[in-house]
Design goal:
Blueprint (H helix, E strand, L loop, with lengths): L1 E10 L2 E8 H4 L4 E5 L6 H13 L26 E8 L2 E8 L2 E4 L6 E4 L2 E8 L4 E6 L2 H12 L3 H7 L1 E2 L3 H7 L2 H12 L2 H39 L15 H66 L1 H17 L3 H25 L11 H16 L2 H39 L1 H79 L1 H6 L29 H39 L4 H22 L2 H54 L5 H46 L4 H7 L3 H26 L1 H8 L5 H64 L11 H24 L4 E6 L11 E6 L4 E4 L5 H22 L7 E5 L7 H13 L6 E5 L3 H6 L3 E5 L6 E5 L3
Parallel strand pairs: 3-15, 3-16, 10-14, 14-15
Antiparallel strand pairs: 1-2, 1-4, 4-5, 5-8, 6-7, 8-9, 11-12, 12-13, 16-17
Helix pairs in contact: 5-24, 6-23, 7-8, 7-22, 8-20, 8-21, 8-22, 9-20, 10-18, 11-18, 12-17, 13-15, 13-16, 13-17, 23-24
């Protein structure tokens, strides 16, 4: 990495624009950066670091870059840093602008512009700069990848800070480990230690969990076995727990099997006794049933004997009914003939009351002859009926002619009136069409002007709304930025308070006999105590979360403000400066004129259509007037023909009607007379036929009753039974026969008769004995089932416990292995003699490399006297691995670096810093560092040592490397000709550059 040029504007103490040409300064290999105290020498290095990483070293970075701005800068000048460098063979230019609080362009107050970053690359072929990115994240990742180191590594390797390596030289192992850990990124080895510790805790918890599950199985086995199992007095994690549980389970299973065998014997005996009791109960029940059956049959036989007389009477009644059934058809026929005769006689009497007196006593033949005469007279009236119908049609035709005449007169009169006003009407309609066409043309012209006016009005309203929104968004962005700053300060305060009290927080987790995670000691005589107001990790994390949320709100507020401003500019460009109220009035007036024109134009089609309808109506009215005149002429001849036909028909009808009002009335009289006479003749003949049939039926009934054995038909009728009585009598006779047969069958059964001869059965005693035997069987079966379940449950739980023990064996082996590795990596194992942690071991190897690289330069600076060596000896009760000693060649003894004098400490620190820079460079992938800076410390050297140190630094120029020395020692200004001077003034600092020329 080689720096070419640095441009600074309003940065740190520099109020204006300053430039540094590193190519000119680096030509001599060594160059001096000097100036009064507080002039801004370190700010030049801060600018280099800020250009590369977007932040400055250490505590000088705060407030999101707001504090980087120079207090001497003009109000309109923005802070900017531009750095041109070559890294990995690529020539790049990085420009960064931190956030800038400036006055608003419109209105009062201030606003904050966001940070900006640009990355460009020089294209040697085209001879131009090419833009690569404007993203903070992309540029940061690109620079970090090219340099191969983080900001902290860069500040330690390229910008060798004042005093840091002197402290590193004298620091204890813990402080030295923190710095080396940051530079070499050995965090992954510390993560390995944590992972091993976490895995040890996890496997230990799993082992204890497995033992707890095993003990739970043992408790369940004890519950299943009752008093037959005794649990071991061991807990989870205790050795021998698995063997003790399995042994106790084996004893319990053996006892359970013995109890199961005893229960089987008892169950067999109970089953035999229960079977004998069931057989005795079945025999007693059968004997009781047969005895009750015989007694019931004897009782039923006695009841049959009591009803024997009634049964014989019913049989005689059934026999007479069967004889009377032979006479039943004749009885039914006679009843039917009598009913028919009464109906026919009644109908004849009713008809004769309606006949005329002359025909009241006439027979059937006389009535039929009178009906034929009335029918003949009715047939002669048919022609008169047709004439009467035609006369009604003639009257209707004459009325129709009258209506047509009146209608034609009305049509002619209306047509004359309408045609008289035709010219006036046509002129008015023509005027309406012309006016509507003119309004349509005007509406089209106004319609073209409406959309631009509406868009301009909408833009003006949006412009006014966005102006208010922009002020609100600006206030919100400023408030969010202030909240973010306050949240960050609060978080840093809490973090500092927690670091101050971290000893008490670590001491809270100390346990006697357990090693300390910091020093590894197992005794803790005086652990630190928490003071009032102690800040724990939870409070710090909560403050950090609030800080991050405040940052997100600030970024969101800034994005919202930028979007509102862009929208406001677009709306202003569209609407101009005209007030929205004026634009609204103009748009409203244009809309009113357009509406009026459209309203007039909308009547164009209606006016044209009305004109066309009026012209069609004129043609129709002229034609209707002519047609009415033609129809009036034809109606005169038609009336004359109708009058002649009417006179002839009226004469014919007068003769046919006679005394009736009409031909139809006369025809009705004749029709009714013929129908009445016909009905009377039919009724007389029906009455005569019914009387003859009744007489025949009486003769056949008397003959049938005599043949059936009855003296009179009345006796036969009384002996008949209806269906219900017949079914009831037959049912009683059948029931008697069935009951008699059933009783005889039961009394004839041999087993029933034998049971009746035996003593009465005692069913209650037999049932009680059977119930007692069943209860004893159930108790024995329950006991046997319980014993079988106990054996099965113990076998299942024992198998589960055995499986669990086998499954825990690999886990126990894994736990032992992980515990040994975790203890070894943490430095607490007895196998780790020096109690060195894994991360310390890796850092010790890096420290050996740094000491070897530093010794090559330290021997030259000290004229071969001093050599830096790495020591892994333990200090006190702590761990070993990061010790650093110096070997004095004059005495041959190895001593602590704290015994070096001030000047010796400086060049030893410088040698250590240069050696560390070489090792970190190799660790970063071998990126070549062509530009280095060394900050202060040369004032403690004598002239000879200063010459030797400068010779070493001058040797760094090999392979075109340059070194910048930051110092205010006057002797260096005489020895180093290439200089960059920082001049301090009331209006800010300035840079003066002097090269070899």
């Amino acid at each position: 990495m080689r720096l070419h040029r640095l441009d600074i504007t309003a940065f740190g103490p520099f109020g204006g624009s300053q430039s540094v040409d590193f190519d000119d300064l680096s030509a001599a290999g060594l160059f001096l950066l000097h100036g009064p105290t507080g002039a801004g020498k370190t700010s030049v290095l801060d600018a280099v670091c800020y250009a590369l990483y977007g932040s400055v070293p250490g505590a000088r970075q705060s407030g999101q870059g707001m504090t980087l701005r120079s207090d001497h800068a003009a109000a309109g000048t923005r802070t900017e840093v531009r750095l041109e460098l070559t890294v990995a063979g690529r020539r790049l230019e990085i420009t960064r602008q931190p956030p800038w609080e400036r006055a608003k362009l419109r209105g009062r107050g201030t606003t904050v512009d966001k940070a900006q970053t640009w990355l460009r690359e020089y294209d040697a072929t085209a001879g131009t700069w090419k833009d690569l990115s404007r993203s903070h994240q992309e540029i940061g990742e690109e620079i970090t990848q090219l340099l191969g180191m983080s900001r902290e590594q860069f500040c330690q390797v390229v910008l060798l800070p004042q005093g840091d390596f002197a402290r590193f030289l004298r620091a204890d192992a813990e402080a030295r480990g923190k710095l080396l850990g940051r530079l070499f990124d050995t965090h992954r080895f510390a993560e390995v230690e944590k992972r091993l510790a976490e895995r040890r805790r996890t496997t230990e918890a799993r082992v204890r969990e497995g033992d707890a599950a095993l003990l739970a199985d043992a408790h369940r086995m004890q519950q299943a076995a009752g008093d037959a199992m005794v649990l071991p007095e061991l807990g989870p994690g205790d050795p021998g727990l698995a063997e003790a549980v399995l042994a106790a389970a084996a004893v319990a299973r053996s006892t359970a099997r013995e109890l199961l065998a005893v229960a089987d014997c008892r169950l067999t005996a109970a089953e035999s006794a229960q079977a004998a009791a069931e057989r005795e109960l079945a025999g007693t029940r059968e004997r009781d049933r047969l005895q009750r059956r015989h007694a019931e049959a004897r009782l039923r036989a006695e009841r049959l004997a009591e009803r024997a007389d009634a049964h014989r009477a019913a049989r005689r009644r059934m026999e007479r009914a069967r004889k009377a059934e032979a006479v039943a058809p004749a009885l039914e026929l006679r009843d039917a003939a009598d009913a028919e005769h009464r109906r026919a006689a009644g109908a004849e009497a009713r008809v004769r009351t309606r006949l005329p007196e002359a025909l009241a006593d006439a027979g059937a033949a006389g009535l039929a002859a009178a009906a034929r005469r009335s029918a003949e007279e009715l047939g002669s009236l048919e022609s008169a009926r047709r004439a009467e119908g035609r006369l009604a049609e003639l009257a209707a035709e004459r009325a129709g002619l009258d209506r047509q005449e009146r209608a034609d007169e009305d049509v002619a009169h209306e047509a004359e009136s309408w045609l008289a006003d035709w010219e006036t009407r046509r002129t008015g309609l023509r005027a309406r069409v012309d006016a509507a066409q003119e309004a349509a043309t005007h509406a089209e012209q106004l319609g073209v002007q409406r959309d631009p006016a509406r868009r301009r009005l909408d833009a003006a309203r949006e412009r006014d709304r966005l102006a208010v929104a922009a002020d609100a968004a600006e206030r919100g962005a400023l408030a969010s930025a202030q909240e973010a700053v306050e949240a960050r300060d609060h978080w840093l305060d809490l973090k500092e308070q927690r670091l101050n009290g971290i000893a008490a927080e670590l001491a809270a987790h100390l346990t006697d006999g357990e090693p300390c995670v910091v020093c590894g000691a197992t005794e803790h005589p005086a652990p630190a105590r928490r003071i009032a107001g102690h800040v724990d990790r939870e409070a710090e994390d909560e403050a950090l979360a609030r800080h991050q949320e405040a940052e997100e709100r600030r970024a969101a507020a800034e994005r919202h403000f930028a979007s509102v401003r862009e929208a406001l500019a677009a709306a202003t460009a569209e609407a101009g400066d005209t007030p929205a109220e004026q634009l609204a009035e103009e748009a409203a007036e244009l809309e009113r004129r357009y509406t009026r024109a459209r309203a007039l134009a909308s009547g164009l089609h209606a006016a044209q259509e009305e004109l066309r309808r009026a012209e069609r109506e004129r043609e129709q009215r002229v034609a209707a007037r002519q047609e009415a005149a033609v129809r009036a002429a034809s109606r005169v001849a038609h009336r004359e023909r109708l009058q002649r036909e009417q006179t002839a028909l009226e004469g014919e009808l007068a003769q046919a009607r006679g005394t009736a009002d009409s031909v139809a009335a006369r025809a009705g009289q004749l029709e009714r007379r013929a129908a009445l006479l016909t009905e009377a003749a039919d009724a007389v003949r029906a009455a005569e036929d019914a009387a003859q049939r009744l007489k025949d039926a009486d003769a056949r009934l008397a003959d049938a009753a005599f043949r059936a054995g009855f003296d009179t038909p009345r006796e036969a009728a009384d002996a008949l039974l209806d269906d219900a009585a017949h079914r009831d009598l037959q049912h009683r006779l059948d029931a008697w026969a069935t009951e008699e047969a059933a009783v005889r069958a039961i009394l004839a059964e041999a087993d029933t008769a034998a049971a009746a001869q035996q003593p009465a059965a005692d069913l209650g005693r037999a049932e009680r004995e059977a119930a007692d035997a069943g209860r004893r069987l159930r108790d024995a079966a329950s006991a046997r089932d319980a014993a079988a379940r106990r054996c099965a449950e113990l076998a299942r739980l024992s198998a589960h416990a055995t499986t669990s023990v086998r499954g825990l064996a690999p886990l126990r082996e894994e736990y032992d292995r992980v515990a040994r590795l975790a203890s070894l990596a943490a430095g607490t194992s007895a196998d780790n003699e020096r109690r060195m942690r894994l991360e310390s071991y890796v850092l010790a190897a890096r420290l050996e490399q740094v000491a070897a690289a530093a010794t090559a330069r330290l021997q030259r600076m000290s004229s071969g006297r001093y050599t830096l060596v790495h020591s892994d000896d333990r200090t006190g009760r702590g761990r070993s691995g990061l010790g650093l000693h110096v070997v004095d060649a004059w005495t041959g003894r190895e001593r602590d670096t704290a015994t070096l004098s001030g000047g010796e400490t400086f060049f030893a620190s410088l040698a250590l810093a240069l050696g560390l820079a070489d090792v970190v460079t190799d660790e970063a992938g071998g990126v070549r560092l062509d530009t280095l800076f060394i900050d202060e410390g040369f004032g403690s050297l004598d002239d000879q040592t200063l010459d030797e140190v400068l010779d070493v630094l001058d040797s760094l120029r090999e392979r075109d490397r340059s070194v910048g020395i930051v110092s205010h020692v006057a002797d260096l200004r005489r020895r180093i000709h290439a200089q960059l001077e920082v001049v301090k003034g009331r209006s800010g600092s300035a840079l003066r550059q002097r090269g070899l020329g």
